[in-house]
Amino acid sequence: MNRINKLFEDKKEGILSVFFTAGYPKLEDTMSILKAAEKVGINMVELGFPFSDPIADGPTIQTSSNIALKNGMSMKKLFSQIVNMRQSVSIPVILMGYVNIVMQYGLEHFCESCKSCGVDGVILPDLPMKDYLAKYKPMFDKYGIVLVLLITPETTDDRIREIDNNTNSFIYMVSSASTTGAQNSFDKKKQDYFARINNMGLKNPRVVGFGISNKQTLQAAFKNSSGAIIGSKFVKCLENTSSPEEAFDMLFDSLKK
Asked: Which are the catalytic amino acids?
């Protein structure tokens, strides 16, 4: 069973995931952050491959991508860093990035590299559903890689059901239609959106991401889904500390306030 599916089978609620950009703050930090994440009890990691024109990322993650690219990060470099990942990291790892980079690397080559490194899933926010079904899904299925698709408050019920019917992992429930970035609270409109999705009877579990940065937003995510994904806040913690362990300490402190 894919590690992502196993996680959601074993743990129905309170799943905590973090996102960080590969090659940030320093080029060779990728594995040390992954190891630290598992050590401190993070359940799943989204590992971003940096891109020069990210459409869904706010300023914090954009900056981390720019720095990672300047550091020399590339898809080839990333796979070389995580080639022996499964010798020391057992939690699910998802690669997150944009279609253009996968196309440049070569789709089957990308899938082969994911499988050989032990990557469990992929998030490609700009991948059209038509292209996914026609070209990407058969290749992902061949190599045992799951695709995670995103929904927002503006996503129609028909589209959500199409996503639910054509994926088998979890649905990334974006808290707002804007780009990534820390928020202090989720207003009634967001709460109504969470409730609407929860009442649809979807087969896939949901995890809330975008804007989770404190106790209020974390609890709201846990209340309305199987878990929470923390990105910008954790990237900021990496920026403001000198080690992954210190960054996680800072993150956990902020989630208590």
From this structure: 46, 57
